[in-house]
Specification:
With 252 residues, the chain is an alpha+beta fold. The protein has one domain: Beta-lactamase (3-Layer(aba) Sandwich), CATH 3.40.710.10. Helix content is 25%, strand content 23%. Strands 1-3-2-8-9 form a five-stranded mixed barrel. A two-stranded antiparallel ribbon has the order 5-6. Helix 1 crosses helix 3.
């Protein structure tokens, strides 16, 4: 029997009138905002073999914003494909002040992806260099493919922008092995995205994510947040749910 694959992609929140200092840098989208906040959101639901099932609202889903830490997923693919880091290579923490306790230690690619460690991926960017960063953005057709901003910040409210519908396209290709990257590399990164039962982990810690999951359900996810070039706060949650008879993807 053909396995049904359902993709939830994307719910992205833009919190324009809210001070970004009140929002966790790497946390999932907040459940509520202040009364003065201007909120835009997008939710896309896509099922492979069926097509797009939901787009709400349609205009926001085409709006490009900073990918923030969701870019760590294509960044991890590029790092492994280029060989600038090994799957189990440990990068040493330099002892400087960092925003989260989880960042103040040595990291492998897997732990850096789980805890959304900015300094680690800044080292990846330095190893890749601007030319290869741009080449991988084009190869993966990710967002506006613009790495012209600072080498270690272009995805953090900088030149790189991606729309929810473009996130959907990237994640559909990731989970159907249609990216122009070796399947073994894709499988390695997908394994790194698998979350512990009942939670989603990022720099700020473990956040409850108790859905009505059947036994054996596997949830994979990546959060992202920051401030866009417009000054708006942005929150993403990108996820994949694998149940016995179907697979689903989500982006918040």
């Amino acid at each position: 029997m053909t396995r049904a694959i359902r993709l939830f992609c994307c719910l992205a929140l833009f919190l324009a009138a809210m001070p970004t200092s009140s929002l966790p840098i790497a946390g999932p989208a907040p459940a509520q905002t202040t009364a003065s906040a201007t909120v835009k959101s997008c939710f896309l639901l896509f099922e492979l073999g069926v097509g797009e099932l939901r787009r709400d609202p349609s205009d926001a889903c085409a709006t490009r914003i900073t990918p923030a830490s969701t870019f760590k997923v294509p960044h991890a693919l590029a790092a492994l494909d280029a060989g600038v880091v090994g799957p189990n290579e440990l990068l040493r923490y330099d002892g400087t002040g960092q925003g989260f306790e989880s960042w103040r230690q040595d990291h492998t690619l897997a732990s850096a992806l789980r805890h959304s460690v900015v300094w680690y991926f800044q080292q990846v960017a330095q190893r890749l260099g601007r030319e290869r960063e741009t080449a991988y953005l084009r190869r993966l057709a990710y967002g506006n493919m613009d790495a012209s901003g600072g080498l270690t910040t272009f995805w953090l409210g900088g030149s790189l922008q991606v729309a929810p519908e473009e996130q959907q396209d990237f994640w559909v290709k990731l989970y159907t092995n249609r990216l122009p990257i070796a399947k073994s590399t894709i499988d390695s990164v997908k394994a790194m995205l698998v979350q512990p039962d009942g939670v989603v982990v990022n720099a700020a810690g473990a956040h409850p994510f108790d859905g009505p999951w059947a036994a054996g359900t596997i949830v994979s996810a990546k959060t992202g947040s920051g401030t866009d070039q417009s000054g708006s706060a942005v929150r993403w949650l990108v996820g994949h749910v694998n149940r016995a008879d179907r697979m689903s993807l989500s982006v918040v």
